[in-house]
Task: structure prediction
Amino acid sequence: MMIPFLDLAQPHRALEENLVGVFRAALRRGAFVGGEMLEEFERAFAAFCGTHDAVGVGSGTDALRFALMACGVGRGQTVVTVPNTFIATAEAISQAGARVDFVDVDAETFNLSATSLEEFLHNKCRMDPGSGRVIHSQSQSVVTAIVPVHLYGQPADMDPILDLAARFKLAVIEDACQAHGAEYFSRKQEQWRRVGSMGRAAAFSFYPGKNLGACGEGGAVTTSDEDVARKVRMLRDHGQVRKYYHQMEGYNGRLDAIQAGILRAKLDHLPKWNERRREVASGYDELLAAANGEVALPSEPGWARSVYHLYVVRAASRDRLKAHLASRGIGTGIHYPIPIHLQKACETLGYRIGSFPVAESAAEEVLSLPMYPELTRELQTQVTECVLEFFSEPKACVAAVGSQHDAENTHRPQQTLGSATFLKSH
Result:
């Protein structure tokens, strides 16, 4: 039996009548952009996240770009984020006009390391005595914001990040594109907080494969800052406050009514879908315990409630394991094989192999196993049995499994990184 990495058909079959009803309602109203469907979803999603506002936009990239711009990020500034994320995080920063810079990640969670952030602010920046702002020593640009990424559905450790942001006068814009409904226990506030409610603003993506996915593109900015919400609403709609009255140069970044209606219909199911993902993750933890350290399982700190957008393991022989699973009809993913600072598109930033060793090490070893709410225990057992089979085979057989995969990459130059190799992007 083929086991896909992601199954988008099953949940949509189950909700087909509801979703078709959304389309019928839009046809009958003739309202396809903005209007009641969008406003209803925005109210519901803001309440779900625990914020005053949610503003629907065209994509997760739009959401992060608009959130940055609405928070005052622009030219001559630097925004700090992590290198192990989808490139849209960096694109949103550069498209807002700012310079992107990186700090390394925590070795257990792969999320932004507050320790690395503090080292960056102390060692690569200086404080301007006149303005009290942080200046990046090399570029001489003002550091104005931090974008922590809640990667794979798990929140970053926000308390120390927010403390550093307050100390150095930096805005925090959460990249929550993979973490709809994830929760963080703030030791400082002694309460659980939903991601998207802790920074000045946050960005969500509703790409179809997300925990809450549209039937197309979509995104949202959440915030409890009324000024930020007002500016995002203008930015998504050509800078208009009302039709044909433009206060700023904006974009065409609206969330259409049908997608908003679909998201509203799905939102009621999101808590049970997330809980089911946690059950699947627990099942993987149990079934892979027999791997005897050959596979490193995801780490979920006590202050985090992950929603497991992805279930990501680490293995030194990742590429061969992936090939082995593919030979058994099991789909997997790599999130992400090349850190942003080593991508061809970002070579002008001047980073090299070794700049961010934790993120680079993760890129060589991470493998995402099938993860979706409808994944049965039977299918999970098949996946994990194939993983355990791989590690139980004699080394010569294990090497043979990956030989074809390795041959396909012989044309790509390799550079040594510690005891492993990193396939450099060209």
About this structure: The chain has 15 helices and 18 strands.
